[in-house]
Structures are given as structure tokens and as C-alpha cells.
Amino acid sequence: MQSNSNYSIGTPGKPWGESERQTWREQTTIKREYQQEVIPKIEALGQRFNIEQYGALSYDEARYPLLCIKSKNWDSNKPTVLITGGVHGYETSGVHGAIKFMDTQAEKYQKDFNFIAAPCVSPWGYETINRWNPNAVDPNRSFYKDSPAEESSNLMKLVATLGDVLVHFDLHETTDTDETEFRPALAARDGANFVECTIPDGFYTVGDTESPQSEFQSAIIESVAKVTHIAPADDKGNLIDSPMIQPGVILYPMVKLGLCGGATNCTYGTTTEVYPDSPKVTDEECNDAQVAAIKGGLDYVIRHL
After folding, report:
1. pLDDT at residue 163 above 60?
2. What CDD domains does the entry give (predicted)?
3. Which residue from 77, 92, 99, 285 has the fewest beta carbons nearer than 10 Å?
4. 3-state secondary structure of 63
């Protein structure tokens, strides 16, 4: 239903201009540090993988280098797996789940795949616990030509160097703050009415409308169910206002919406959605759910190569 509550910035019904974006930006604060919490974990893998810088954010290039973790013995005869995390910087297990997979599991699969992981696509968003970048632009709606988000354009340039990508895991979370902060802010920014939504209680995946790969999604759900609970549909049969087309799975048109999940022409792609606000899970279990999602998907692909 529509909500009459007004966001603290802007005039109802009127899209933001630069002054509103500046006001929004000024209310953000650094809450955690990318250089302390993320980069050391990536660099610690440097003996086992190649750590490469694929760009830097112009907001502060020294503070926000963009790093990827890449298989040392890259073999053009093997299929490539891309793992992205932190496209929405506030979705913490996407970042740390990607790193944990590379640390604990990737080498077990390297006889079958090349791996490249970009664990923290939006480090400013990570530090300020934000969905948007400093320009109030959502990187995960900006994967298209002449992108307004440098987080997205830098990743697309990296993807363009990879050749064919067979599998892409884009690691996300759906949080309670999506409903209390980020979706109301979006409505205010665009001069639209805020329509309330129910946050799913549990893990789910988002497949591509154009290539659902239902069995691949099912394998992911089955693997994650061993770690955390899977989100049930609401009383309308939906998850996050989209029809649940199979247990724990919805579909979005990835390319049309400018989503990171559409950044490659992969055969197998999924966007994971962990629910970190459940009292049933810990932060580490959220990371483990991301790892389990990747493992379940890769085990399925290996069976069908």
C-alpha cells in the first residue's frame, strides 16, 4: 500500500535536484573502514591468487582502490566464473562471503574453472552503509553504456577483459533497512509515492527473466538450505512484490533494469539475497550462506558441463 509518510529530504512529488542530493550526501558518515576491514582480507590471499587493481573511485582514489582476486594459472580452455559482491556496499555478507569463498573453496574448483572475484564493487557504500554512491545513484541500476555510476563502469571495463563468462554469482542481501530507509529515499529522490513492501524472511535468489535456469537456481537453494532458512512466499505468492516462480526464486529482467546480474552474457547467473536481520542467523552464517550458494551453483554446473 502507499504510505503518506514523507522522507526527511525533498518536497513530496518533486524529484531531487542537486541541492537535495547534496543535503543527502552531507548526512552520510563513515561507519566502518574499507582499508581496515576489506583490503587486508583481499591482500592476504596474494600468495594463492593474483590481486589486481581494476580501477579506483574518484571520490578518493587512494582510499577506494577497486581490487579483484583472480586465479593465478588462468587457463583459456577453462570456463570462467565471476563473483561480485558489495555492488550495494551496505550488504555486508556479499563482500565477506565472496572473500570467504575465494579463501576456503575456490582452489577446490580450480581444476574446472578460472575464478575472478570483485568482492567490494562499492567501497564508499561499504563505509557509509549505503545503497547508493555519493551522487545518490544506485550502482545496481547502472550497468549500461555511459553509466552514471563509476562503480558500475569500472566493473564493466573489467568484465570486458574476461572474454566469455560461464557463471556469474552476484552476492546481495535484502535488509529491514531496505524498507525503513532505502526504498523511502528512492521514492523521495524520484518524486514518487512510497509503496510499502514486505521484506522476505529468509534467503532467496533472483534469476534472469530472459534465462531463468530453474534447475541451477534450485541447486543453489538446496545448498543454502543447509546453512540458513529459505524465504517463503507472502500471502500473495510473492517475494519482494515479485511472483515466486519456484521455491525461493524470483525473476528480474537483468539487462533491462541495469542490474549487475546482466553485466555478462553468462549461461548461468544468479543474484543471491541473504536476510541478515533474522534473529535465526549470525553474521558468519550469512557469509556461509553466500559460500553455500556459490558451491551449490558450481556443483550443478560441473554436473552439466
Report:
1. yes
2. M14_REP34-like
3. 77
4. coil
Which of 195, 196, 169, 209 lies closest to 290 in space, CA to CA?
169
| Contact between residue 188 and residue 16 where contact means Cβ atoms under 8 Å apart | yes
Rounded Cα distance between 234 and 193, Å, is 22
- Compute φ and ψ for 238, nearest 5 degrees: -110, 160
What is the reported pLDDT for 1?
A: 41
> Is residue 132 within 8 Å of residue 55, measured between CB atoms?
no
Alpha carbons 132 and 170: distance in angstroms, whole number: 17
Tell me the per-residue pLDDT of 190-213, one tens digit each, with 9 for 90 and over. Answer: 999 999 999 999 999 999 999 999
CA distances from 20 to 102, 125, 149, 185 (A): 40, 18, 18, 11
Contact call for residues 165 and 266 (beta carbons, < 8 A): yes
Tell me how far apart the alpha carbons of residues 193 and 3 are, in angstroms, rounded to a whole number.
7
Cell of 112: 574446472
Q: Are 75 and 286 in contact (CB under 8 A)?
A: no
Query: Residue 68 is placed in which grid cell?
Result: 579483484
SS3 state of residue 202:
coil
pTM for the whole structure: 0.97
Please list, in sequence order, all residues whose beta carbon lies within 8 angstroms of the beta carbon of residue 177, skipping any fewer than 6 positions away: 90
Could you tell me the domains of the chain? 2-304 (3.40.630.10)
Residue 179 has, within 13 A of its CA and on its CB side, a CA count of: 16
